[in-house]
Amino acid sequence: MTDLSKDLECEEYFGYNFKLNQFSIKFRKAKITPKKIGQFVTLWKRNPETKEIEPFEDKDNFGFYIIAAESQNKRGFFFFSQNVLIQNKILTTSAKEGKRGFRVYPDWDIIKNKQAEKTKNWQTKSFINFSEINYIEKSKGILNSVV
Question: Distance between CA atoms of 58 and 52, rounded to whole angstroms?
């Protein structure tokens, strides 16, 4: 890991930027919210001209967006590639505006509604649960999938 820098606009979500091998990484820590299953994370930048916040774009130079999740004694990371976030309409493209924040559903969350279940299904492929024996191999597999 190199070029570690704090994202001053995102201290509330432990925002950092860094490089891992050849990848530029944007890091956030999701928050548990009191009334909904899952955890919430913001994923936006400030437009230097308008000073407004806006979603990250497919043109932004980040290969992965890593979202940390924890609950009591459970911990894990979502390793979302840029392509996965584009496919799921989180990042802005020329066709559609992305999202400034979204919910993540670690594998330990029990989902009770269809929309959250649909979201959890695409997120599961990118989730690394640190209590699993093969978490290092799964992490490498996700990183190697975009090389």
Answer: 18
